[in-house]
Amino acid sequence: MLPNGSFILGGAASGKSGWAENFILSSNLSPIYLATGRIWDDEILLRVKVHKDRRDTRWTTIEEPLDLATPLANLAADTPVLIDCATMWLSNQMMEEADIDHATQTLLDALRACAAPWVIVSNEVGHGIVPDNKLARQFREAQGRLNIALAQEADLAVQVTAGLPQVLKGSLP
Q1: Active site residue 127
Q2: Out of 35, 51, 84, 123, which one is annotated catalytic?
Q3: 148-168 per-position pLDDT tens digit
């Protein structure tokens, strides 16, 4: 049985998405994959292909880079959703020059109201050096605040490093 809300955190290429996929599949329910990525270049296209190729026919994919509230509102209680990932969603919001506080609050409200168990993946960006430009520093700060809010909202928070989970909050089912 999945918790109502799970937050999966890790660095780039830490194995967090693969771990989250296996975690949600352990429910033996047919999950939704809510993809937030936009394809900006060939590198991102390849990353998306790797993610898609890893998923089998049990998954239904919804691609939504900005408005997560609408698909979350339409899910049944027996349809778990994996949101991959909060970092790309935040990047998209910033590229659109959205009001980040409002967008974050809308996302948090949607997660609270979601009937389905949700799992959201996010990058830990605070372990590196201080970025050398203003936009990168703003992004790092916004990502840190978003991660804090998502971790507080979740019943389970897991940090994945080298593909290995470490429970930060709650307990694995």
Answers
A1: no
A2: 51
A3: 999 999 999 999 999 999 999
